[in-house]
UniProtKB/TrEMBL annotation:
Descriptive protein name: CDP-diacylglycerol--glycerol-3-phosphate 3-phosphatidyltransferase
PANTHER family, per database record: CDP-DIACYLGLYCEROL--GLYCEROL-3-PHOSPHATE 3-PHOSPHATIDYLTRANSFERASE-RELATED, PHOSPHATIDYLGLYCEROPHOSPHATE SYNTHASE-RELATED
Membrane disposition: Multi-pass membrane protein
Transmembrane segments: 12-32, 156-178
Entry GO MF terms: CDP-diacylglycerol-glycerol-3-phosphate 3-phosphatidyltransferase activity
Family membership: Belongs to the CDP-alcohol phosphatidyltransferase class-I family.
A Pfam family the protein falls into: CDP-OH_P_transf
Organism per entry: Lentzea kristufekii
EC number: 2.7.8.5
Encoding gene per record: pgsA
Domain of life of the native organism: Bacteria
Keyword Thylakoid: no
Length: 192
């Protein structure tokens, strides 16, 4: 009988997740520097946002490929994603680039699903669904486009992708709620 390999908490996937969290204040500083509309600083903010967003793809791929999945990573990864996208949305709303209702809609869904995951964690971890991953990708692309210095064409594309992101945000939020209640119900039946 072999003992299951213990995955160290300090591994490359978790380090990338923590790096993403550390980039959030650096991104915000760049976004707001020089009044928030300086072309150079907006390009720097976009670069930081793009690098931080890309670490989300890399850390997940490395964790799955090399068996580095940890309970910490399962919880910290979505929190890091929400911190990055949430801070970007709030920043863009403060700058009047995005209406507050969009930021609030996405934030309520993200915080609600994170709390829901914690509520059912004793029954299991709700993994990200394909729809959830598509939602994250659409949000990241739309936010990134809004961070860039705007022109008419870019603005139209950004709004179109943000519309898709909003639909996916709502639909996948409902899906997570259904999955959480099913998981809790299954766990309740298993106890009986």
């Amino acid at each position: 009988m072999t003992e299951a390999r213990k995955v160290p908490l300090l591994n490359v996937a978790n380090i990338l997740t923590m790096a993403r969290l550390a980039l959030v204040p650096v991104f915000l500083f760049s976004l707001f520097e020089a009044g928030g509309f300086d072309t150079t600083w907006r390009l720097i903010a976009f670069g930081i946002f793009a690098v931080a967003s890309f670490t989300d793809h890399i850390d997940g791929t490395l964790a799955r490929k090399h068996g580095l999945i940890t309970d910490f990573g399962k919880i910290a990864d979505p929190i890091a994603d929400k911190a990055l996208t949430g801070s970007a949305l709030v920043g863009l709303s403060i700058l009047d680039v995005l209406p507050w209702w969009i930021t609030i809609t996405i934030a309520v869904r993200e915080v609600g699903i994170t709390l829901l995951r914690f509520w059912v964690i004793r029954y299991g971890v709700i993994p990200a669904s394909r729809g959830g991953k598509a939602k994250t990708l659409a949000q990241v692309i739309a936010i990134g486009l809004f961070v860039l210095p705007q022109n008419d064409v870019l603005e139209v594309i950004a709004w179109a992708i943000m519309a898709v992101a909003l639909v996916l945000t709502i639909v996948t939020g409902i899906d997570y709620v259904i999955r959480a209640f099913k998981m809790k119900a299954r766990a309740g039946r298993a106890v009986l």
